[in-house]
Amino acid sequence: MIRSAITLLSLCAGLTLPLAAQDQAHSRLPSPYSTYGENGLPFFGQTLDARHLGDPWAANNLTPRGIILNLGHGIHACFDPDLLRIALIWQERTPGDYLTMNGMAPGSYRQPHRKAPAGQAALPRPVGTPLFATGMHPGVLAGSSSALEDPRSPSIDREEKGLGPLPPHIGRWIGLGMDRQGPVLAYEIQGVSIEEQWEISLDTDKTPVRFRRSLRVGPNNQRLTIYLPPAPPVSLMPSNIAREWIINYNLSSRSAEPTRQNGKGPHLFDPHPRIWERTVTTELNPGQVPGDGAFAREEIPLPLPNPWKRNVRPSDFDFFPDGRLALLTFDGDVWIANDVTGRRKHITWQRFAGGLHEPMGLRVVDGQIVVFDRNGLVTLRDRDRNGEADFYANLCNLPAQTAETREFAMGFELKPGGGFFLSKGGQVHGPRGKLNGTILEVSADGKTMKVIATGLRQPFLGVDPVSGLLTASDQQGHWVPSTPLHVIKPGSYYGFQPVRLGPKANEGRTINEPPLWIPHFVNQSGARQVWLRNARMGTLNDSLVHVGYNQPALFRIYLDAHGQQGAVAPLLTGFPTGLLSGRVNPVDGRLYVGGFNLWGTTGKKIQGLYRIRPTGKPSSLPSTVRAFKEGVVLRFDHPLGHDHATSMSRYSVDRWNYQRTADYGSGHFRPDGSPGQEPLAISCIYISEDHQSVFLGIPGMKPIHSLRITCRLESRSAQSVYLSIKALIPINLTKLGFEETEVHLTPATIAADAPREKPTAERGRQIATTYGCLACHSTDGTKKVAEDPSLVIGPTWKGLFQSERTLVDGSTRRADESYLRESILYPAKRVTRGFETRKTGVGMPPYLGVLNEDQVASLILYLKSLR
Length: 867
Fold this sequence. Notes:
This protein is mainly β. Helices cover 8% and strands 34% of the residues. α5 crosses α8 and α6 crosses α8. The longest helix has 15 residues.
């Protein structure tokens, strides 16, 4: 008896030790929203880290793709759809205090600027008393096998546990359904269908005493063995008909009592009544914010507030053929809006689904919503047609998923002709998984998958529905000198490697260079690309638009006919919300964009959805940009005034290269390798006979990472275009509509630099805003600590000057002018403790050659003023 008591105490010890129960703290945060898990459903997707429980529990019990189920009466469970096991059943410590909110979505749900730490060291943990747990092996085995081991192939780093689903001949996850009795977990073991429903039984004083598993098992000719330690294994005998089994697990003795019921036919779906009966109505305000005059944005009001106190942070959206909008949130919800085109004054929003695992991709496929989240591709089915999803069908869970907080389900696009393209986050601060930083192609039925590209950091995708051209943006980082836009070629490698692999990580590798580098100060974080096919966007029709996140903006992309080189120009800037996604509405033909703030962005509004429409005014953007051996041709959609278009004083040209190294980002370097940007002379300017094209003769044209042309036409503000050049061909002016036949390349004198402005703190503030510095550094004393990551991922600037800094090597340094200058130009040289890349997930790029001496001096004056 004493031994039994000790054993029971040891079973309970793992979770009764004091833990940082962020769920309790989470619920106390001042917020207009309910807690993350209160989504109206008895489940939600979440990683669960149960590796800390101690003896006798499995030491490596980590579930990257967990389904957390609330069984009621303070009992919670985590089902692992990869290994088809019950990873853990536990009793909460106090009411509502059962899970630490360390994930990226739950941690920021009520604290919108809080980012989860990088890596796998601080993941969501159970809080309370463990009752049952299955180790890292299948929860059900068929036949005589009793080998309790993980049958999946290992990852690059063998300690990684996120290995994807079981081999299909062993088992397959079907999906999760909702009927009147609650959630139904459906899967197959060696072709034998199994459906499970769970409940907790109470004794007379309302104390939980049993965990009851009801299993409907299809015909099977082998014994099935079910594991849920510390209860002994349960064997289900073969049967040539479908049967129902009941297994009662005693919560005190940890025993298991199986009972075979009478023969049962297939499970008959018993529809669950609607969960979210009410709708939310928002009023559409037709107010607009103009861009350069040619395009304007209009805000689409989101369903906030709502009766369920749910946060609404758009991560993606798509349109049904009739124009209805399906909106996905990072917190796992799907909303449907009846009409956002403005034809009606009010928008009616209906909740459709919830409980998804940090989803970031949604597409409407044959009238059904398909979502890409950390659990894979999920088809949302409404079997009883009551307006709510009642079956979350596994379309494809082949893409293995780690618990790394930065391995997001990034990009999700349709492949013309059938199938899907997916992209997965590549930042890794722990063991490497099988598919970090890859682009995948999945068949239309979800049964096959292949890797088509590797070496990406955080790629978002775009697909031309006409040509099938696949593009991907990425983000500046280690081995990525600036923001690239890639044209994806199957089998290519794009260069990103985790910082911990060191400076030799790319030795012997062939890196496929992008056709376009977007300067970091223009677009620090690339998101999706949208082709405006079948659009009603005026001069933008059929063009490619790039969505920018850090400084929220839209950009027009110009690719040559072969996708080998291109150019970019800002299209519409100043969005108040970080942008992630864009789609064309098939009804009104307008471009819609949206997103939310969590990662580094200058946007101040937490969430937003916007419609972009043409105003009918001419655009200052060129319609085409082409580089030749003799110069550059800019063509516009409207005639230009001759005097403005041919005035040398209205143009400036400079260029620079980047250096791809293991350091974070790159400075700017002239073609001779010295830091800075090289100014170029313009030898001549020609205007075409229709006055819509301008040719700039530029002596010394050569391949370059970034060639910037800044022009001021028709008295408008300056417009810059950035070209990346790999190859140059001779120009034929006549074919391009110019009267001139020869190019005069006698170098003109480069215009004298503008008079130097005296460095001031105010200029420094403007530079900090323009270059996106304030997305990572606060000016009000807000500080980031490793235990509480936030949007501010660099040291605060308030009080920085002359403060004592403790560096990562343990040394100290006073933040004098010399230190500030070095930190601006060479930020990786001395890093303040607590702001290492492995903790923040990002680094600071060098501004060597990006800022001139006067700009650096102004920035230092601004830093000194923030006392």
